[in-house]
Amino acid sequence: MMAGFGHTTRKHPRSRSRTRRRSGPDRATLGIIGVICAVAGFFVLGIILGPLAIACGWLAMGRRWNGARPLPALIALVLGAIDTILAIVWMAGTAGPSSGMF
């Protein structure tokens, strides 16, 4: 049986990657946004920008640890974790008994 115009034997496309919608940000952009959030988090709002950098880095890595890791995504993930830990330590240090509240 031969396939003619409009009468294909294959009912589904060969790969899903060709048919995927490309409406979201790509991985390189998410990695760069994560790095910017991590660096800015060292100066202001580290408790918010640190986890945001971790999330952007994780999404830029493709939500997996194996395989090729883009450098901006890995930098965003590491700096975001350091930023979050420093913000938590700073908040714990200012909320101690010698903070002068009472």
Automatic annotation (TrEMBL):
Annotated keywords: Membrane, Transmembrane, Transmembrane helix
Q: Looking at the keywords, is Transmembrane helix present?
A: yes
Which residue ranges run through the membrane? Answer: 28-61, 73-93
What InterPro entries has UniProt attached to this entry?
YqfX-like
Disordered: where is this region? 1-25
| Record carries keyword Oxidoreductase | no
**Positions with biased composition (Basic residues):** 8-22
Q: Kindly provide the name given to this protein in its UniProt entry.
A: Small hydrophobic protein
